[in-house]
Amino acid sequence: MRDRNILSRVFYFYYDGFKSMTLGKTLWLIILIKVFIMFAVLKLFFFPNFLNSNFDNDKERGNYVIEQLTKQP
Amino acid sequence: MTETFDFALVNWSRGLFALTAMYHWLFVPLTLGLAYIMAIMETIYVKTGDPHWKKTTKFWMTLFGINFAIGIATGLILEFEFGTNWSNYSWFVGDIFGAPLAIEGIFAFFIESTFIAVMYFGWNKVSKKFHLLSTWLVAFGASLSALWILVANAWMQDPVGMLFNPDTARNEMGNFWEVFLSPMAINKFLHTISSAYLLASVFVIGVSAWYLLKKREVLLAKRSILVAAVFGIITAGYTIVTGDGSASLVAKNQPMKFAAFEGLYHGKTGAGLVAVGVLSQTPEDPNYEDLKEFYFKIEIPNLLSYLAFRDFNAFVPGVRDLLEGNEEHGIMAATEKIKRGKIAINALAAYQHAKEAGDNEKAAEARRVLDENFQYFGYGYFDDPKELVPSIPITFYSFHLMVALGFYFFLLMIIFLWLLYKDRLEKAKTLLRIAIFSIPLAYIASQSGWITAEVGRQPWVIQDLLPTMVAVSHINATTVQVTFWLFAVLFTTLMIAEIRIMTKQIKLGPKDEGGK
Description:
The complex is a heterodimer of chains A (73) and B (516).
Chain A: H1 6-19, H2 23-46, H3 50-54, H4 58-70
Chain B: H1 7-48, H2 51-71, H3 76-85, H4 87-93, H5 95-121, H6 128-157, E1 162-165, E2 170-173, H7 176-180, H8 183-213, H9 218-253, H10 255-262, E3 268-269, E4 273-279, E5 294-300, H11 303-309, E6 315-316, H12 319-324, H13 334-357, H14 360-373, H15 392-421, H16 429-456, E7 460-462, E8 466-467, H17 468-471, H18 477-508
Antiparallel strand pairs in B: 1-2, 3-6, 4-5, 7-8
């Protein structure tokens, strides 16, 4: 270990850590599935940024919000 | 003006945000508190060299890991919702939210990728002291990470340190330190994290009580109870002190919320604190619009006045005073605030028209009117003052439940510590069972705190400036409804996974390991 450079030591620190996990492997699987659902499904299909997807620039976005804030019944 | 809003959309958007925030908050407080309990245990291990403390620390670290893994990133969905469901709000808050959330992201990433790895992978690979430092940094970093989102939330309750730019309709950071160090921000942070630490103490005591009932891991259980009870007494005391500070700030900055806490409709000098009470509901007043009396209450004389203004004889305004005004006590009527709010909204519109027409003189005049009335801006969206009243029953009961449970946990910690000191804990089987059933109560108390804070501040997302109904994005209500149910399924699955993995691991108990 002493002969290895710092990057290699950091790599093997994580590598050995992940390799020796038991319950941790199940938890990582849960994290990965969850993150996949969040970013590849929810963010993509259910959470478009309303202002970014409907307007091209900040000027248009600002004008739209001002219109929303000042519109009369 | 309220008739122009789609309330199905507003309510589903609120429901979605509340669902996400409440599920997210199921995981956060245990992470915040258990991290410190583990760090204290590991400190004792490093000080004494006793390997049993290492075993104890590692056992709680396993439970911490389960909670952390299942809870991580659930808060990100709240950020997705800002952009999708609350676009007017997101735009209006401008960079006030951006800076704290960006800092939180950096801290969270830095700590999670570095020190948590050392904490789990570093046993016997790094020195004991560096490992201990990593555990403390995880604990410290998790709380620091929570700081920024709580600063942002506090700004919504008491918006300070910003300048509204009428050209962009955004609030710009005028003074970072005023935002960061506002009394509301400091108090909200301290009260929230101390209550999270208390929840973790209750959790540790409850799990340890189960071991004692099963006559398993007795030493681990007793040592865990010792650490958790001492930590719990300190944090429960601090939660009570910061709760008192929080109530005082709410009384000054959000008097309607404060009146709702106590179901106070008619202001009083020397107002008493309702310790326990049941709100009356009559056929003439089905919506609790003008509560005259309680069905039942136990009141502590003059304490509410002291709690609010540090004066036993101070006047505490009630709902009616805040709606109708009270000249004697200098309280402006809601109708006047609504009038000034409408002037501010019209001034913003006039400013925009003048700018478009290139009329700088008219624009300057409109800007002056807007600035003069901006503090009432949000009131301009209402026509009926009654719309300014939050749900009194939800606020009242959640507030009282939170307070009662807070004192109960304080007492529970003292009793546990006393019986541990007297070596009679193992025989106190009823108390051990009560401790196990106190775990869900700690979560109920924690959620009640947020319900008090967030339902109590309705109809505002930003106090006095932006009502909830204006903050929402104009998207299809059905889409929001579908997302709500999708989330309910997703989060419930995560919660079931957490409970199953956690209980399985508790039943398995700590691993036996050799060496120091």
